[in-house]
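Lecture notes, structural biology module. Today: joint structure prediction for complexes of two components.
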Amino acid sequence: MSLRGKAAIIGFAEMAPQKGDGDKTPLGIISEVARDAIADAGLEKKEIDGLLTGMAIGDYSVLWPSVVAEYLQLQPRYFGQVELGGASAAGMVWRAAAAIEAGMCQNVLCVLGDTRSTKATGTKPPPFPRLDAEFDAPYGLIAANPGYALIARRHMYEFGTTPEQMAKVAVDQRKNACKNPAALFGQKEITIDDVLNSRMIVDPLHLLEIVSPCTGGGAFIVTSAERAKRAPHRPVYLLGAGEAGGHCGITRARSLTTSLVKPAAEAAFKMAGVTPQDMDFVQPYDCYTITVIVTLEDAGFCKKGHGGPFVWEHDLTYRGDFPCNTHGGQLSFGQPGLAGGMSHVIEAVRQLMGRAGERQVKNATIGYVNGNGGIMSEQCSLVLGIQ
Amino acid sequence: MTEYKKPLPRPTATSLPFWQAAKRHELQIQHCTKCGAHIFYPRDICPECLGSELEWIKVSGKGVVYSYTIARAPTHPAFAEDVPYVIAIVELAEGPRITTNIVGCKPEEVHIGMGVEATFEDVTPEITLVKFRPA
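The predicted structure, tokenised, for the full assembly:
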């Protein structure tokens, strides 16, 4: 059994990221994007019988899926939390498709929303994993920044990747963001020098190579291929999915430079029966510039170690020869908690539905999405396309 | 002595021998008597063969820098006074990798492949951290 073509995304909604906390709670954001996604899919609330959600740092508790169901007065027959960090949204797509294919439900609401901090709710943020706290945090290896810096440094050592090549990712994606009215940093283009002259945070990563946490949310609706035929927008089918994991802290990763994207992407392309070269665009998770380079290599868009020259030689803008993170990526769009990872799924859907406005990739029929969580520790690759 | 404000490990029953050894300025890791794997961090069973016969062994404390970053901004507010400092992954001669700081040289002198050896920093009366310096 394969999930290829069995389910489709038929509607979505996204809140424009906000820099501060804003005046809503995560549940307020979730309820608004959920409502708008249901309407966008041409469905009524009573038709939603599946719910997938994920952790909100700004309102963390156990039993979160039930909290969300209760807040929206949904009555899911299939529901749960996808706990894959930034890969959660990508992970939702195939889980929803699998649940539909298994006959558990018909229309799954996948929703994420978060605030910049816990200010709105007064709750305590979730703790870091205990073993990371015991063996990494005492040395300052805390949260994501230093972990990705360790990856970048090792990549530079093994393959000669340069700061300029990494900066190019941020520069091209900013051009895309300038065509995205919702992007947090879409006002002004930047140059390689701007990136390299921005403050060094964790050498070799500069400020403009690092995502900015913010407030926001997103939602999409997955339904069966059969039901998708009656949707108001062009359905976007799940053609392939693959997932991989195996470490939490980066020190325990088997390799710093060959990531779990490799098995995840191989599985996704195999299920879809296509190759990386068939993609009209890519939306790879980009918490840092190096993340894009490693992902493109491991997903097979270029040879291992050639990610730096590859991004340097290709135009990553929506009108370029290799459209990449056409919404600006999280580097320029913003990272509203786990909904940051959802922005890549939603942008792929937007492009394939032909609803990307000024930044529409011409004749886009198939694209690659990668969700990445933690320190390259959760990977979920998707191939999405229209039929 | 000023209060130590940086994050401290909280040893568990499983990891206590490692931290007790560190306090004696010894580096000890686990060794699986079944498959021969060297294991770090400490576990209750061998993550390679799932065997439960693990012994503690004293290791050389020698290793090489596998990767590193120079923190130019603090990665946690309590590290503000240490900037710039080197966060590193050291690959021990016995195989396992360990998160650490490289001390005893300028941050700019650190490089991947650099030979290092364990050095012990008694940060509180209870806790000693295992750091590395050029060998």
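Point to remember: Chain A has 13 helices and eleven strands.
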